[in-house]
## 1
Amino acid sequence: MSRFRLRFEKIKDKYDCIVVGAGPAGLTAALYLARFNIDTVIVSKDIGGKMAVAPLVDDYPGISEVPGVKLVELFTNHVKKYGVPMIIGEAVVDVVKEGDMWCIETEGGRKLCAYAVILAIGVEKRKLGVPGEDKFIGRGVSYCAVCDGMFFKDKVVAVVGGGDSAFSSALYLSTIARKVYLIHRREIFKAMPYYIEKAKKNPKIEIITNTVITEILGDKKVSKIKVKNTITKEEKILDVDGVFIEIGSEPPKQFLKSIGLELDENGYIAVNPDMSTNLPGIFACGDIAGGRYKYRFEQIITAAAEGAIAAKSVYEYIIKVKQSENNSLK
Ligand code: NAP
């Protein structure tokens, strides 16, 4: 991952609000906070989150088709217009309460404090957990078609998964590779019908259902996968040069628990309708937010909407905190 920083002003050690994460939720939260005149900084390990690796975004209203990276640029430029400082390339490893402030620490040892923190950190890619997966990461095994697709020009690749990520990756890879297997463990797909129809019509994509990968094989790099039909139990070997794993994501449960956040049964942060959490001053939005009030529909537009709501809630929270600080000074 590239370690770069975007700085539009000197970084201070205290802000009104720290936004952790710079995907559509975090960037939108920062944009709205700036418009509410809340002194805000963004701290994130990367910029764009999942949006940055979307091959093509064709469902964001008003922009009929745009590569994910371009949409990230549009979001970022919009935030930039308001002069919000951004520290990109530093993952946040700790969030602790100190007096009336929340302080974050980054992996590089940087410490920043604020009255409120918005966690918009997204989720981590799920691993397949089969022999050969770890051994061949970067040597044929990939979790990002946009990042690594070009290494497979005119080659044969397999994509694992049955959701939107697997289908959009397969469609993208079909523009580069000679052949794309889309391997899914069930007959039914989670992906949107629009993607499924497009993939079915694509002569370069072969969809294999009721099938799991049991092993990834090769010498120095991937050359084959062992697959098993879950119904007939028949096993066979497919010759492939690459395997793209797109089987969903999981929240970083240990990190969230270490902060003291209440999580839902799947490990996502339990948020109230206003994106507040069980910890006053900590808010969450986007893919990391969950709980009984959350209707899970992971889209750029829903993440952005939650970011805007979180910003409004932080604005109201900070007004109250500052009012009570002023009263206690009287
Ligand atoms: P997802 O919707 O959770 O789909 C994950 C897929 O991987 C499922 O088909 C699942 O199978 C399969 N899977 C999970 N664990 C597996 C395992 N151990 N072995 C084999 N297969 C496994 O994840 P996603 O596709 O990454 O999408 C995440 C969210 O982002 C979704 O809400 C999606 O709509 C959204 N998204 C939207 C777009 C878009 O709108 N353009 C693009 C990308 C992603 P089962 O079906 O059997 O559970």
Note: Residues 1-5 have pLDDT under 50 and may be disordered.
## 2
Amino acid sequence: MPQKKSIDPAALRMLDLAQGQNILTAFTRADSTKPCPIGADGNCCRNCWMGPCRFVGKTNNGICGATRETIQARNLARAIAAGSASHSDHGRDLAHLMAAIGKGEAPDYKIKDEGKLRIVAGYFDIKTEGRTNEEIAKDLGEAALRDFGRQDGEITYIKRATPKRQEMWRKLGLTPKGADREVVEVFHRTHMGNDQDPEDILDAALRASLTDGWCGSMISTDFSDIIFGTPTPVSASANLGVLKEDEVNIIVHGHEPQGAAMVLEAASDPEMIKYAQSKGAKGINLSGICCTANEVLMRQGIPLAGNFLHQELAILTGAVEAFIVDVQCIMEALVPLAGKFHTKIITTSPKGRIPGATHIPFSEHDAMTVARLIVKTAIDNYPNRPKQVNIPDTSNTLIAGFSHEYLNYMQGGMFRQSFRPLNDNVANGRIRGVAGVVGCNNATMTQDDSHINIIRELIKNDVLVLTTGCGGHACGKFGMLSPEMMENAGHGLKEVCQAIGIPPVLHMGSCVDNSRILTAATQMATEGGLGEDINDLPAVGIAPEWMTEKALAIGAYFVASGAYVIFGGPNPVAGSEAIQKLISAGWEKKVDGKLEFVEGWENIVAKTLAHIDAKRKALKLVEWDPNRFAPSASYVPGEMYPAEAYAAGKRSAKA
Ligand code: NFS
Ligand code: SF4
């Protein structure tokens, strides 16, 4: 277990507090819960009840004769399929909402981005001319739903990949038919006594993962943008210091925007604010955790209370009236923990019930009524708050909201939208390359340590960083999303940041918004000058502190789309050299992308830079030179970076 639990001073303070009160958290449970070493390495098969078969010592076959490679491939494939299922089901609900808006069955929702509605309808071959938003929305929602259940043909967004990639997928039989179908097929193939060819099993996993990136997640992003607005830069703040001592604190946690956006609207209603004041509060303060937070940060500038490992810590402040959860990444520890405080855990999804929580089911048909009830429940709970609360005075300011659309706009204005400046600056070496640093926190690692160290090193080396998910939260908490951070970038990257006016780390949203990175990478690849496909780009995808099945699904679809993907932390296929080779060298041969599990953030940085330089060389671009754009070295050893200063407990940037 990690020596240090977190590099975040707010987390450390809350953990001290928990220890003083003898309260357990994921951080402490990680100390006392030893992972089963057999399962951790992927060496356990539980796919039938002759087993579980444990591949230890000289055992190289299960009772049925299954080989270590087969069971490793099956375990990995099932995890990828489960991750894809989660993102696709999220997308499905947004497709339902889109259709409901079109049919007038979701009266509290409107189409916010009419332009994007029409562009996206175009992908689905839906007629837009002379039709109302509602007519288009109905057709669009229904067309998207067919993508989930499609049995033949191809998922719609496949055509948004580069022509070369589409061709490759078709030739290899990797083009997914429908999202549900490919996931079901992985579970069929990996059932006892079925597919016994590890490569074939993992091909099915790649196909299932593509239904995440190019269907479920991409639909989630697009439809959320259409309904709630396509993000543009917003400023906000991050970390537990965003909670307010004298206001009703409502936290939204989970992954979906549907409920949270309505709760925000209800909480902004002057009547509700008056009601809160009648209970002695100064107002209502909404903040978020995990990806629901990212959804409302990106579009409405709602502050981030923290990432995955902050969910318990927020309750420990004693200052949270209502903790509203929808789906995914919600710890079962929340309800018993909240029982020690006045905090009400409110579940809203039929797919995310928790015994002991207050269940207020969310429905698109009367969304505002439900949202108002939730906000009222929170306000009514304010008088129960204890006198003494413990909100750490720690937060940092940030800029988020970098949609693919905005990136286009910022580089060329309304009429010359393009990625040309970005491509040119990569080609001329101001930007050495691009890295997506995304994904989870993992209680078995030091919280945020790898995220922050990797990103700090990359921007110093002129690598432009894109972030999403809990990685985005980590960056926000440590000031890495603020424009001042360009001072810590290499000279070339800094120049680009100054010219375009962006921070060197761009927050692109929630985990389903990794689809924005796919879209941006595809555009970079087709804009010209950097090859013709994603695998030609000097770019790497990194999930430094991963832990969910969703993360594996994301990693897999980036690999299938041509990216080099590095995961830090646990290696789920550590028990088989052959499988590790298959998903790295093997997949590289097949799809020009590879997945590697690499220990230690320093090694991840080294591999990232080496890959970027190799790709630059293959593209015959100028060799990256840290001094080309300024004579003096940009890095002063021992210099105190804001992230470090912050971690050292300096007062936050928050006014
Ligand atoms: Ni992504 Fe978002 Fe966080 Fe990991 Fe969970 S919240 S979907 S899975 S833990 S980044
Ligand atoms: Fe053991 Fe084979 Fe059953 Fe897996 S499927 S548990 S390896 S007998």
Note: Confidence is low (pLDDT under 50) at residues 631-655.
